[in-house]
Design a protein that fits this description.
heterodimer, A: alpha+beta, two-stranded parallel ribbon, 11 helices, 61% helix, B: alpha+beta, elongated
């Protein structure tokens, strides 16, 4: 046999449930902590959700943030944050700063303001150019929050319905509990580290939900397959077998996804970094939650085992026809 | 597992078509130039340089390229809200003279008629001194109502008239509001489109969003402000009767009159009848020109209705002045020497040639029916866009190489490369599909492609892992191959359907860049199903038929 990189041996028998419900409860606690973090620390909302203006100022000279700040102190802007942006992809003479101005009530005002900001910054840094200026009015930002929350809720419900249809309600419920903790903990991470939270991050969270459900479905698919031919083995043992049998696939796919995301995180540019960060973290937590949340929840709920006695094909849930063995 | 010949051929044809559709993107600048030149030639402009550019890309090759989103190309994105309630206000406000005349004719029974100013601007409120006759007044005003021309509002009229303690309020009916909204939105879209087109910017996106919003995206524009200036130039043109002129901006006038400044004579104000003789909406054409003395002027021509109204007025008021009012300023107030019956004339003032050109453009484009409030403005510079493309391409290539390297390490050169061929075909077909359907590639869209590379191999991983299991069970190579695909199918379908569900949700709720991500994610999942399942199976099938392997090295 030629060389094969195998991170997982051919035959594994890891008993994922030997700690009982402890990892699951720990995850729930973490999700709860995330919720508390979001409620107390709050999220570092970007202008998508908060309204306001962000300006991306690029310069060929390395002017200190403090000089920018003192230049902007001259004009009455209200709440201004200036952050320096670093990226390994930048040229040697490329220095980028992000200026964020808190929501002005009228977007109309901001245009005069932007001119003022530009003039003020050019005094300390004649080379400065604004490569991006984005303004979101408070009306739209409020709607964006609503649609974001709605989207996450809709996707969770949709997935639950689908998994229920295809498997059993216990699987659907288990999957959604897992997805919910994934989403919650990811958002909590953004709260704790105060990484900017905007629409692309919501897209990232939804994508994590998508990635996570993939993982859960593959495991559940295997459980269902074993259930069909084995009516005696207790569910916990059966779940362990399913998890072990799919373990090498889980590791393979997670590694390829992480490889792609690491590339995106490092080389994809600073504009997309927050997105890559969320995805990277989420893809790890998604795999964890498959085993320690979703599978565990299904074990707690138990699965009706008598259906395969009624019929030989033993449909559990709705079946798509695939050519039989 | 047998695959009929027609399905094999079909599979390869689809692959070839997908790859062919992606080819122009490899020569992006050339194809873009050629396409631009072709569209210019089509619009009538043609010279040797253009023809040479057009010929730069062979006509027999597909020429659709992925259109880049504003975040990659640079440009301005604006979301505007049309202030529809303003239209209602204007409509009811314009009814006042009519209502006044109608009720005043019945002064004997109704008493004095007085307009109540202030309050909700979308209602016209009138007080009559004989409050007990309000019912009669309401009936009279109702005769002014017109039937509404809508499908849903059959039998409805355009006015709601109610009386309350001798105060009669007139508002637009529900059906009329809906019809007005529709008209105002369509008109706004058309006017914005014309104004942006006048500048010759290519490929602007101007679409209606929701009830009262318009999304404007103009590539290659340096700032959102430029677009706003372009759209926001209201250029509301009216012709009004001049009562007198004054030097006092706060001159006392009757409610039917207004005081407006002269554009080119500081300190001069005109007292005008509010009632318009003709308004800019009746203008059919306007051109920059020169008068007999060689001064730049703007000529105009009215439609028949406008021409008739203008003719009647000028016949009645020969000798007096009329004012040409643009955006609340009197640009000129010529004397009517003789009735102007043909409906055309010219506007003179202290204009230079450029000003007359601009004015003519603005007049032709017409006035926006209501003000716009800009809810969202984003400007992305072209440099940042290019940086993002570079970073995205770099990340995609590195991600692809990492994933492919890992696949070869895990599944060996043969099976690893089959998965990698599927992966390359997948990304290629994705680009091809994006080009064909004209979807826009955004920065998150590139992220979607990168992510797809990581996730798309999942189908092959599932299949290969199944095949390995069958090998371990000691099944014959052919059976392993068949069972690998069969058993992996349900997991592949389930996981992909859930992914597509997510992509659809993202597309529906998302806007702009997020939508771009949803498109690539959804397309990526769809094409990966095809390449990872159909194409790899076909390649393996060919291989099995040729080599008839005794043992599978997986």
């Amino acid at each position: 046999m030629a060389f094969r990189l195998k991170l997982v041996p051919d035959k594994t028998s890891v008993n994922f449930f030997k700690w009982g419900g402890i990892p699951t409860h720990a995850t729930f606690a973490l999700a709860l902590a995330s919720l508390i973090a979001v409620m107390t620390i709050g999220l570092n909302y970007g202008i998508d959700f908060l309204g306001g203006t962000t300006i991306r100022a690029e310069s060929s000279e390395n002017v200190a943030v403090s000089e920018y700040r003192s230049a902007l102190d001259q004009i009455e802007l209200g709440d201004v944050t200036i952050t320096e942006v670093f990226d390994p992809g930048f040229r040697a003479d490329q220095f980028v700063k992000q200026v964020r101005i808190q929501a002005a009530n009228e977007t109309e005002v901001s245009n005069a303001l932007i001119g003022q900001v530009e003039a003020a910054l050019q005094v300390v840094d004649p080379q400065v150019v604004f490569t991006a200026v984005e303004t979101v009015g408070p009306k739209v930002s409020g709607e964006l929050i609503q649609t974001a929350v709605l989207a996450v809720a809709a996707s969770l419900l949709g997935i639950m319905a689908y998994v229920w249809l295809r498997f059993e309600w216990q699987f659907g419920f288990g999957a959604v509990v897992g997805l919910f903790t994934d989403a919650m903990i990811t958002v909590g991470l953004f709260s704790v580290f105060q990484v900017r939270f905007d629409l692309t991050i919501v897209a990232a969270v939804l994508t994590i939900v998508g990635f996570s459900i993939n993982d859960k479905v593959v495991v559940f698919d295997r459980v269902r397959e074993i259930l069909r031919r084995d009516s005696t083995t207790p569910l916990p043992e059966l779940m362990v077998v399913a998890l072990n049998e799919t373990l090498s696939r889980t590791v393979m796919t997670t590694v390829t996804t992480i490889l792609a995301l690491v590339a995106l995180y490092i080389w994809g540019g600073d504009v997309i970094r927050g997105f890559a960060f969320a995805m990277l973290f989420g893809s790890v937590i998604a795999v964890y939650s498959t085993i320690f949340v979703s599978a565990q929840v299904v074990l707690w709920l138990g699965v009706k085992r008598d259906w395969e006695k009624k019929t030989d094909t033993g449909p559990s849930g709705t079946q798509f026809t695939t050519s039989a063995e | 597992m047998h695959i009929p010949l027609w399905r094999r051929i079909l599979t390869w044809v689809v692959v070839a078509a997908g790859v062919l559709a992606a080819v122009p993107n490899a020569f992006y600048a050339t194809v873009e130039q050629s396409n631009d030149a072709k569209s210019q030639i089509e619009s009538g402009v043609s010279d040797d340089a253009l023809r040479a550019q057009a010929a730069g890309w062979p006509a027999w090759l597909p020429s659709s390229i992925v259109s880049l989103g504003l975040d990659l190309r640079g440009g301005a994105h604006l979301l505007a809200e049309v202030q529809l309630s303003q239209v209602y206000a204007e409509r009811v406000d314009a009814m006042w003279p009519q209502v006044r005349d109608l009720l005043a004719a019945q002064r004997d029974t109704l008493g004095f008629v007085q307009r109540i100013e202030g309050g909700d601007p979308s209602a016209l409120r009138v007080r009559i001194s004989n409050a007990d006759q309000a019912g009669r007044a309401v009936d009279l005003i109702r005769t002014l109502a017109q039937p509404v021309q809508t499908l849903t509002g059959i039998g409805a009229t355009d006015l709601d008239v109610r009386a309350d303690n001798g105060v009669i309020s007139i508002t637009l009916s529900e059906a009329e509001r809906a019809a007005t909204d529709e008209r105002a939105m369509r008109q706004s879209l058309e006017i914005i489109r014309r104004r942006i087109d006048e500048v010759g910017t290519r490929e602007p996106t101007i679409i209606r969003q929701g009830e009262d919003r318009i999304l404007v995206q103009v590539p290659g524009v340096g700032s959102a402000q430029e677009v706003k200036d372009l759209i926001g130039a209201t250029a509301r043109l009216t012709f009004q009767h001049v009562v007198s002129s004054t030097n006092d901006p706060n001159a006392q006038v009757t409610p039917d009159q207004e005081v407006l400044p002269a554009l080119d004579q500081p300190g001069v104000y005109y007292i005008l009848d509010r009632q318009e003789i003709v308004s800019g909406e009746q203008l059919v054409d306007s051109q920059p020109s020169f008068d007999q003395t060689g001064r730049p002027v703007v000529t105009f021509r009215f439609n028949p209705t406008g021409a008739r109204a203008f003719g009647e007025h000028t016949a009645q008021y020969t000798g007096s002045l009329f004012a040409i009012v643009l955006d609340g300023e009197v640009i000129s107030a010529p004397q009517i020497r003789e009735p102007i019956l043909g409906g055309s004339g010219s506007i003179s003032g202290t204009f230079n040639i450029e000003q007359t050109t601009n004015l003519a453009v603005l007049l032709r484009a017409g006035a926006l029916p209501a003000d716009l409030v800009f809810l969202e403005e984003r400007t992305i510079g072209p440099e940042l866009g290019q940086d993002s493309i570079d970073a995205g391409v770099r990340a995609s290539i590195i991600a692809g190489l990492l994933v492919m390297g890992y696949m070869v390490l895990s599944y060996g050169l043969f099976f690893g490369m089959i998965a990698n061929i599927a992966l390359i075909l997948n990304v290629t077909m994705m680009l091809g599909l994006l080009s064909i359907i004209g979807a826009t590639l955004t920065l998150p869209g590139i992220a979607g492609i990168v992510l797809t590379m990581g996730v798309a191999v999942d189908a092959n991983v599932l299949i290969f892992e199944r095949m390995r299991e069958e090998i371990r069970r000691g099944k014959a190579p052919w059976r392993c191959f068949e069972l690998g695909y069969d058993k992996a199918m349900s997991a592949i379908i389930d996981s992909n359907i859930t992914s597509i569900m997510i992509a659809i949700i993202l597309y529906v709720i998302g806007s702009g860049a997020v939508r771009g991500f949803a498109v690539t994610l959804g397309l990526g999942v769809a094409t990966s199903m095809f390449t990872a399942v159909f194409v790899t199976r076909l390649i393996l099938l060919h291989w099995f038929e040729m080599r008839k392997p005794k043992k599978l090295e997986l």
